[in-house]
Amino acid sequence: MRIVIAEDDPLLREGLALLLRAESLDVVATTDNPGDFLASVDEHRPEVAIVDVRMPPTHTDEGIVAAVEARRRQPDLAVLVLSAYVEQAFATDLLAGGGARLGYLLKERVGRVQEFLDALHRVAGGGTAIDPEVVAQLLVRTRPDTRLDRLSPRERDVLALMAEGLGNGAIAERLVVTEGAVHKHIRSIFAKLDLAPTDRADRRVTAVLRYLEDARRRA
């Protein structure tokens, strides 16, 4: 797996590179600004980019803008975005774009090495990885009187883990239930959110978007 890192904090940048190389992953370039990041993407054609949200010169959204441009140049590029704190609008936009090969993690998650590596591999494999803290903050902000109120507490737990990008097996492990139970909860979630089996959209992504979009309207 070829990886480019764009992070202006030198300690985190080099720490990430050391961690990934220790896992036998190929870090082909490390950069500290959007221009060098895009040049590295053009040169090395990586499979995954790890990008800080806030980068020079203004430390606002340069990382996001650069990640979008990198995906325009290389549509199959997987992008894992790192942020120092929850930025809800970006997390919502991330999934609204479809979520494939995209992830959004808080930087503190890097210290939980196995969780970070699991998220990286999930994104590289075509999935989505949303930080649990982002999901939690969005869930508690949902508005009343929506279809989400039909969900049981356990169904909301399942939906939250779906938002993180976990598959049925991983959800079952996290909740200490069987995969069959998870499958039943997901069927119930789809039914309560009026997502028919004939819907052309990915029902998992659509279900997650329902509460993320609702949370954003309330923000």
Automatic annotation (TrEMBL):
<feature type="modified residue" description="4-aspartylphosphate">
    <location>
        <position position="52"/>
    </location>
</feature>
<dbReference type="InterPro" id="IPR011006">
    <property type="entry name" value="CheY-like_superfamily"/>
</dbReference>
<feature type="domain" description="Response regulatory">
    <location>
        <begin position="2"/>
        <end position="122"/>
    </location>
</feature>
<dbReference type="GO" id="GO:0006355">
    <property type="term" value="P:regulation of DNA-templated transcription"/>
</dbReference>
<dbReference type="InterPro" id="IPR000792">
    <property type="entry name" value="Tscrpt_reg_LuxR_C"/>
</dbReference>
<dbReference type="InterPro" id="IPR058245">
    <property type="entry name" value="NreC/VraR/RcsB-like_REC"/>
</dbReference>
<dbReference type="Pfam" id="PF00196">
    <property type="entry name" value="GerE"/>
</dbReference>
<dbReference type="InterPro" id="IPR001789">
    <property type="entry name" value="Sig_transdc_resp-reg_receiver"/>
</dbReference>
<keyword id="KW-0597">Phosphoprotein</keyword>
<protein>
    <submittedName>
        <fullName>Two component transcriptional regulator, LuxR family</fullName>
    </submittedName>
</protein>
<dbReference type="GO" id="GO:0000160">
    <property type="term" value="P:phosphorelay signal transduction system"/>
</dbReference>
<keyword id="KW-0238">DNA-binding</keyword>
<dbReference type="Pfam" id="PF00072">
    <property type="entry name" value="Response_reg"/>
</dbReference>
<dbReference type="InterPro" id="IPR039420">
    <property type="entry name" value="WalR-like"/>
</dbReference>
<keyword id="KW-0804">Transcription</keyword>
<dbReference type="InterPro" id="IPR016032">
    <property type="entry name" value="Sig_transdc_resp-reg_C-effctor"/>
</dbReference>
<dbReference type="InterPro" id="IPR036388">
    <property type="entry name" value="WH-like_DNA-bd_sf"/>
</dbReference>
<feature type="domain" description="HTH luxR-type">
    <location>
        <begin position="144"/>
        <end position="211"/>
    </location>
</feature>
<dbReference type="GO" id="GO:0003677">
    <property type="term" value="F:DNA binding"/>
</dbReference>
<keyword id="KW-0805">Transcription regulation</keyword>
